[in-house]
Amino acid sequence: MRLTYGAASNVGLVRTQNEDSFVAGDGIYAVCDGMGGALAGEVASEAACRILMELGRQGSPADELREAVRRANAEILRRSIEEPGMAGMGTTLTAAVRQGDAVVLAHVGDSRAYLLHAGQLRQLTEDHSLVAELVRQGRLTLQQAAAHPHRSVITRALGTEHDVQPDVSTVPLEPGDRLLLCSDGVSGLVPDDRLEELLGSPGTPQEVADALVHEALAHGGDDNATAVVVFAEEGHVATGDAEMIRFGPERRSPNSPPPPRGPLPGHGSIANAAPGWWRRGFRSRRLWKAVAIVILALVVGLAGLAVFNSSVYHVGTVDDQVVLYRGLPATVFGVRMCWVVEESRVSYSRLEPYLRQRVDAHELTTKEEGQRFLRSLDSQS
Ligand code: CA
Question: How many angstroms does the Cα of residue 33 sit away from the middle of ligand 1?
Fold first, then answer.
C-alpha cells in the first residue's frame, strides 16, 4: 500500500499570526496548534513538529511517539520558563506514523484525526477539551458544544504540565481510505458532513487539503486552519517518493487562498476557565494591546502638553533677578518645564511688596504681556 499526502495551512481571516505547524511526508504526519501570546504559540507548535521529525523510526512507532511527546513537552515547558515572552505557551499535537498497513496515532489537545472509510467519516481522536468532557458526561449535546463560548478551553496540552500522556491508538488502513489531521480552525468551523464530502472529493491529496482549508475560511476563518490529508492507495511505495516536511512561519501551499489583510476584530476571551484547565487564550496579546493604548495616550498627552507649555509665559526670578520664563512654572517627571527668555535689570528684593506679590503669583501670561511687565519694572527702577 502506498500513502500519498498533501497539506495546507492558512492564518485565517481574523488572526494576525499562524500558530499552527504541521509535518507531512515520508510516513509521518502531524498537526500542532500552538497557543500563547505574541509568537509563543508558533514557537511551541514548531518545536513539537521539529521533535516529531527527529523520530528515530527504528523501534515501535507507539513508543517513539510517546517519547517524542515527552521530549516536546519538556522542551516547551523549559523554554516557557526560561525564555522571555514565552510564559504559558503550549501546543496540541495530533500525529500519525505509518506502521505497515496502519498508522499509529498520538494525540494531545483538540486538534483532530478523522478517517474516511467506505465513504463514511469517523473521528479517530477524542478532544481533550472542556466541552468534549461535558459531552462525554452527557451535560452538553454536540450541537451545544459546537456553539459553546468555552469550546476553545482545552484540558490537555504540551508545555503546560510536567507529565502529559498522549492518547495512542493504531488505525488499520485499507486502499481507498483517507486520513485527515486538522486543527480546530478546520474541524470547529466546517460541519462534519462537509468534511466527509470534501475529504472524499476527487483530486489529489494536496487539492483536498487546500479545499478543506478554503472551506474553513468560507465558514468565517476565525482561527488558523491547517489540514494534512493522507490517501491510502494500492501499490508499492514509489521509489523517490518526494518527501515533504514543512513547518515554520511559511506554511501556505501555492494553491491555498492568499492570506487576508489583518488585523480584524479578534475573539472574546473566556472569563472563568476552571483552574488546572489550559485555556487557549490571548491574554498576553490583549495585555500588549492595553499597554500600547496607554503608551499612545501618554505620547498624545505629552505632545499636547509640550505644545501648550511652549505657548505660555510667566514672570519669576533667577537668584534675585526678575525674569520672563517661557513655559509652565512646574516640574514634570523631574524635568523643569520653563526656561528664561528675557531678563530685567530689576532686583526682586527691591520691589514694592505689591509687585513682589505679582512676581510670586507666577501667573500665566503671553509673551507681550510679560515683556511689558518687565519693561514697566525697568522703567521704575
Ligand atoms: Ca486553533
Answer: 6
Taking the centre of ligand 1 as the mean of its atom positions, its distance from the CA of residue 35, in whole angstroms, is: 8
pLDDT for 238 equals 55
SS3 251: coil
Model confidence pLDDT, tens digit, residues 273-329: 233 334 444 445 667 788 888 899 888 888 888 888 888 899 999 888 999 999 998
Task: Show the cell assigned to 144.
Answer: 451545544
Closest CA to 93 of 217, 181, 190: 181
- Dist CA 204 CA 217 (whole Å): 20
Q: What is the pLDDT of residue 350?
A: 87
For residues 271 and 67, the model is more confident at: 67
Q: Report cis status (omega within 30 of 0) of the bond before 263.
A: yes
* Separation between Cα atoms, residue 54 and residue 30, nearest integer Å: 13
Copy the grid coordinates of residue 288: 500588549
Mean pLDDT computed over 36-63: 88
Residue (of 303, 192, 224, 179) closest to 12 by Cα position? 224
**27 C-alpha to center of ligand 1: Å?**
24
Give the three cell numbers for residue 227. 489540514
Which uninterrupted H or E stretch holds 361? Answer: none
Residue 184 Cα, ligand 1 centroid: separation in angstroms? 5
Ligand 1 centroid from CA 221, angstroms: 10
How far is 307 from 284, CA to CA, in rounded Å? Answer: 34
The Å distance, Cα 3 to ligand 1 centre, comes to 26
Q: What is the mean pLDDT of residues 76-97?
A: 93
